[in-house]
Fold this protein.
Amino acid sequence: MTNQEEIKTYIRFGVHKDRDVLQNCADDFNGIVIPAHILAYSPEPTVAMITYISKSYFIDPMTYIYKYNYKSYITHDKDKKKKFKPSIHKLTESYNLTDFFITKDFAPLRPADFTDQFIKKLLSSTINFQKSKVNQTLESSIKRYEDLLKKINIDYPDEAGDKDYEPLFYTLPYFDFNDHKDDWFEINKRIFEISKANFSDSNPVPILAFKKSALDEYKQILAPFKDAPKLLFWIDNFDERKSDCDTLKKYRNFVQYAAYELGISITNLYGSYYSLLLTKLGLKGVSHGIYYGESKSIKTEIGGIPPSRYYIEPLHGFLTIPSTIALIKESPELLCDCENVCKEFVAGDIERIYEFDKNYDRAQRHFLCMRQREIKDIRDSDLNTLFNNLNKTYQEYKDKVSLPQGNTFLTDKGIDYIKNWSLAIQDKCNEA
Amino acid sequence: MKRQSQTENQLEIKLGKKLRQKGLQVFTQVRLCSKRVDLVYIEKRKSVNSVELKLTNWKEAVRQAYLNKYNFHKSYVAIYANNSRRLKPHFHIFRKLGIGLLFIDREGNSTEVIGAKYNYSPNSIFLNDFRNKYKTK
């Protein structure tokens, strides 16, 4: 990647209360990832967000959830009949799978369910949903607005509502797998093959969701998808801050092989600063939530928001609010003065960081501003400089976060992740 | 694990009771952002102090007490006295960090083994919230 090439960052839409932050910070990211169950369940506010934020978007079809049988996904109606919880129920309706699951008594999908006929049906319904849901919702909203205006004798402006809100690209239904011998891997392959034969005009993008251990066999995993111009991936429960150097290197190798050997444009659906660094080594884009979602376990049941926390840009990580206050009291140079939030809201008073606990949206806006700062820094620097900066930061702060009894006052292993990141890219610095 | 947390809880209740008997205002499981402080008590001169109570895991207690010390006037770790012997070689850590150490017996009586350093500038925003929420005297 050349220094001036754009790093694509996509924000994963999580909860509707984030809409204002996304609107206010729309300049800080390239596009939005819309989970299909959110669009299916609350189409109007989701589509309203897409229109007023005016950013490109794509839809995560969320099909992997049908592999699982979590208690929270199933509920019972008044007659004690099973049904999916509302958002999954709506998604299932949108994919025309309601009768299918009723017949199965809501048992999770099994590889044996995936006949070619079923795959074609699934492809058709998921791609149609992505093609039509936003524009259909928009048309129906406009129609209601037009009717309302007619009642008070006002003409609907001709030019309004003409804009087409097509997704940036369509995505294929996907199911997580353990390794290339897993039946679910075969199903993802088959889905891709059938899409090429039957849905080539839509050019849908495959999504690979797999266990960390599958990074050992990245060539086998990528081989069937070498014709895909684009590919999205999700490494299950892969927290870049908790991963050892060896795993980080395997991830780097996966990225480089896909980008440079196979020529695929690849984007990580759940990544943090380390993924941003890998844009120097072939990664095209990174997605994450605002404030959360820099890693995700496939077994995480959908829904819920994390506790308030604060992003420390020089450390490229989130800290709890009490940890932030403790760290900045000892290292005041870390006090942020970003124009978005901190310059006015914190105004140099460390105690005011406590207020972020009750001002979630401000902490989110601060994070997006910091993320943009990181992206700019990566874009404007070479890999050697970034590597040196990581080392310098680690040396400067490793003792400042340590306590005399051997642990740190931060969670987990303090800032060892910074050292691991630098070690994981070290041998690529001179090549880049 | 469950048994241990119940005992910690029992010890917390007993310590709270003893402190109340001394005329102090006591609050348990006080929210400090995403974490909970085991016990907070207010001394007569309005000093608001925190206590992190652990049966054995003193290192984790020190970690939590370290975060508390920036928000309260005094920050203590309380350890069950029966498990206190092996802590002696580490007393210097408490002194270095300005964190006090209490030993608690099975009845909840506390002995201050190391005094906590007084923080003259605790987090006033947090303490105002705390006073408003708990309607302290």
Observations:
- DSSP finds four helices and six strands in chain B.
- Residues 2-134 of chain B form a domain with the Rossmann fold fold (CATH 3.40.50.10670).
- The first helix of chain B runs from residue 2 to 21.
- Chain B touches chain A at residues 32-35, 58-60, 62-63, 66-68, 70-71, 90, 92-93, 96-97, 123-126 (CB under 8 Å).
